[in-house]
């Protein structure tokens, strides 16, 4: 059995209250992981091309405020 399968089986045993608590914990955990990945990608220059394209579109009037 994989670690994920083990965790799935344990989660299935949660009460509604425990499941709600787990959802809150997981949402924060997932959000923190996403933020860390974006920061790492930005620091590594992986987003530079996208930023340059966005700036170029803005300068040529192709971008709109949302």
Question: What is the gist of this entry?
Answer:
The chain is mainly α and 66 residues long.
Characterization of the model:
- With 66 residues, the chain is mostly helical.
- The chain has a domain of 45 residues.
- 76% of the residues lie in helices and 0% in strands.
- It has three helices and no strands.
- The chain is elongated, with a radius of gyration of 20 Å.
- The termini are far apart.
- The model has no long low-confidence stretch (mean pLDDT 96).
Q: What level of helicity do the residues show? A: over 70%
Question: What's the overall geometry?
Answer: elongated
Mean pLDDT: 96
Cα end-to-end separation: 48 Å
Summed up, the helix count is 3
Largest beta-sheet details: none
Poorly predicted runs of 5 or more residues = none
Rg, please? 20 Å
| Class based on secondary structure composition and strand pairing | mainly alpha
The protein's oligomeric status is: single chain
Strand content: under 5%
Task: Please provide the count of β strands.
Answer: 0
Helices and strands, in N-to-C order?
A: HHH
What key phrases describe this protein's structure?
mainly alpha; elongated; 66 residues
């Amino acid at each position: 059995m994989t670690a994920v399968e083990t965790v799935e089986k344990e989660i299935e045993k949660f009460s509604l209250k425990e499941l709600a608590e787990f959802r809150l914990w997981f949402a924060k955990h997932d959000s923190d992981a996403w933020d860390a990945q974006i920061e790492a990608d930005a620091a590594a220059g992986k987003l530079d091309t996208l930023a340059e394209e966005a700036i170029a579109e803005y300068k040529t009037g192709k971008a709109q405020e949302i």
